[in-house]
Design goal:
single chain
């Protein structure tokens, strides 16, 4: 017999949006007012913007994985797994736990913040041979992989093999790709000094993007400054170019060039989590179409935000949608929590409005470009703003202390260029981390929920 009498609020996803929503709900709701449940494979919030610094060894993985259980008042129930389908009619979320058990979780209110997955295209060999940069495991793996290429090149007697292991290709000229290429180039530049048998001139980094400009959101001047910094470091930038096919030992560009390489890092944008397609609801470029209050019109108690929701950007107007950034996700998380509480208490919900505060890009070392509140900065002032912003955005004092300590230690002592070997001999390409084949179709969701109902 079901003895639950309190409303059940189910939050899907522990990114910036989901965690901020849960924290706000816990602060504003009394324990007997509602039960809050969070669905996430990991009991931590990942600070995604600093992943390139984990890949390059500036930060340790633990420093940007902020535990959800540190709060003494934390009372939210956590289901360790991922949502793979939602039946809006029956108000049931289908979850695959980390032990591959499929469970149905009923709800009264659902907040969908499942985030995004790497956007890939139908390029031969891409998902089999490219590495992603969306998870902590991928960042740690890429670091191991890059250092292993130096080790293997140093040990090789074959000049062709050595050359291919020392070429690296990053696809994607947005923030993730640019920062990844910049930070990892610094890693290899510093590390090669410890390999006397290797010619530093053989190390080549390629950053390519199909767009005509690098990070166009920065504007003409800052974008050009970023390109100049990277080119000065020896990173070859190819714009208006993408990948035609990828293999285990070479990559073919769309301009016909064939680059011998064992390292292809794909950061060419993101798309909404496949979970959104299981709802059978209206979408905008794959993101769930929601009202300015971030609720789903016509479906009571359904809210969506972050990378997976097409939230109208009322600050810009003209039908613009909020970009999938951490800045918006944080504020949307708090705002959705307030609207859920308003709905729960029978009060009026408010539309989401936030004016973008600016952009920061940390290129490693003393190189950075930033545009806080429209003010263009370069070099040390830009880096101070970039790191200051990231540091202040970390949720706990423990995380802030770890990150600051890592930055200081790296600045003073440098890197030891150690690879952990945790993922040695295990596949770790895009297809091994994204799990995009785990989701159900809308029909499968209905069949599962209806079948469970009949068994009860």
């Amino acid at each position: 017999m079901n003895t639950v009498t309190r409303p059940r609020i189910l939050v899907v996803g522990a990114g910036f949006a989901g965690v901020e929503c849960v924290r706000r709900l816990e602060r504003k709701l009394s324990p007997d007012e509602a039960d809050v449940t969070l669905v996430t494979p990991f009991a931590y919030q990942l600070y995604l913007p600093l992943l390139p610094q984990v890949a390059s060894g500036v930060l340790t993985p633990q420093s940007i994985a902020v535990s959800l259980r540190r709060s003494k008042k934390y009372r939210t129930r956590i289901i360790p797994g991922g949502a793979i389908g939602v039946d809006l009619k029956s108000k049931v979320c289908v979850i695959r736990t980390i032990t591959d058990q499929i469970v149905n979780e009923p709800y009264d209110y659902i907040v969908l913040a499942p985030g995004s997955v790497t956007r890939t295209f139908d390029i031969p060999g891409l998902t089999d041979h490219a590495f992603g940069m969306k998870t902590l495991a991928e960042a740690a793996y890429i670091r191991d992989h890059v250092i292993s290429q130096l080790d293997l090149a140093d040990a090789s007697q074959d000049p062709d093999e050595r050359a291919s292991r020392l070429q690296f290709v990053v696809v994607g000229g947005g923030y993730a790709g640019t920062e990844t290429a910049a930070c990892l180039q610094r890693l290899t530049h510093a590390a090669v000094k410890r390999y006397p048998r290797l010619d530093p001139g053989l190390i080549k980094w390629h950053l390519i993007d199909i767009a005509p400009k690098l990070m166009p959101e920065l504007g003409e001047k800052l974008g050009s400054s970023a390109q100049e910094i990277l080119r000065r470091r020896g990173i070859e930038i190819s714009l208006g170019t993408s990948i035609a096919k990828a293999g285990p030992e070479e990559v073919t560009f769309t301009d016909g060039r064939v680059v011998p390489t064992r390292t292809l890092i794909w950061t060419a944008g993101v798309v909404a989590s496949p979970l959104i397609a299981t709802l059978g609801a209206e979408t905008v470029k794959g993101r769930l179409a929601v009202a300015p209050e971030m609720n789903l019109p016509g479906d009571d108690g359904v809210f969506a935000l972050g990378d997976s929701a097409a939230v109208p950007d009322l600050a810009k107007g003209d039908g613009a949608m909020c970009p999938p950034t951490a800045q918006h996700a944080l504020r949307q998380g708090r705002h959705v929590a307030d609207n859920v509480i308003a709905s729960l208490r029978g009060a009026a919900m408010k539309p989401y409005v936030h004016k973008d505060l600016g952009l920061v890009v940390d290129l490693g070392g003393t190189d950075a470009v930033s545009k806080p509140l429209g003010i263009e900065l370069r070099g040390l002032p830009a880096q101070a703003v970039a790191r200051g912003y990231h540091w202040s955005a970390l949720r706990t004092n423990v995380a802030k202390t770890r990150v600051m300590t890592n930055w200081l230690l790296n600045a003073v002592a440098g890197d030891d260029f150690v690879r952990t070997g945790f993922q040695a001999r295990k596949p770790a390409t895009l297809k091994d981390f994204e799990y995009t084949d785990a989701y159900l179709t809308p029909e499968q969701v209905r069949e599962r929920v209806e079948g469970a109902g009949r068994r009860e």
